[in-house]
Specification:
Layout: H1 2-22, H2 35-54, H3 65-85, H4 91-119, H5 122-132, H6 134-157
Helix pairs in contact: 1-3, 1-4, 1-6, 2-4, 3-4
Amino acid sequence: LLWYIVPLVVVYFAEYFINQGLFELLFFRNTSLSHAQQYRWYQMLYQAGVFASRSSLRCCRIRFTWALALLQCLNLAFLLADVWFGFLPSIYLVFLIILYEGLLGGAAYVNTFHNIALETSDEHREFAMAATCISDTLGISLSGLLALPLHDFLCQLS
């Protein structure tokens, strides 16, 4: 069961750490979009990526959801490095990364539950799905807990 739960916790941790802790700090002055508009675009692109990937299960099944967790952690590290060092020259690169973030998160969610449905026995399936449902909540809660102090720390550096 941990084979399903741990990757989903990690994906959601990294995903919501980006969303809660970094989105507001990924601000570009060299664009016509205001800070609030940039934030709204980030949210829209993230949700579009989630929607697209959750709708794509028939096209592509991913058995190894730990790979999605690793990729989402790389997204987190990359965007955190950009907040710290400011090396990305254009908001459009961030737009692509955030769309990709949503694609990874949605794919991890839908494939985790699809894999449980296919790979667990009938007698354990309902429990496995119910237990795995806490994964997203756990990842989101942990990310919020850690994103708050990190966000404050990064704001004090400016």
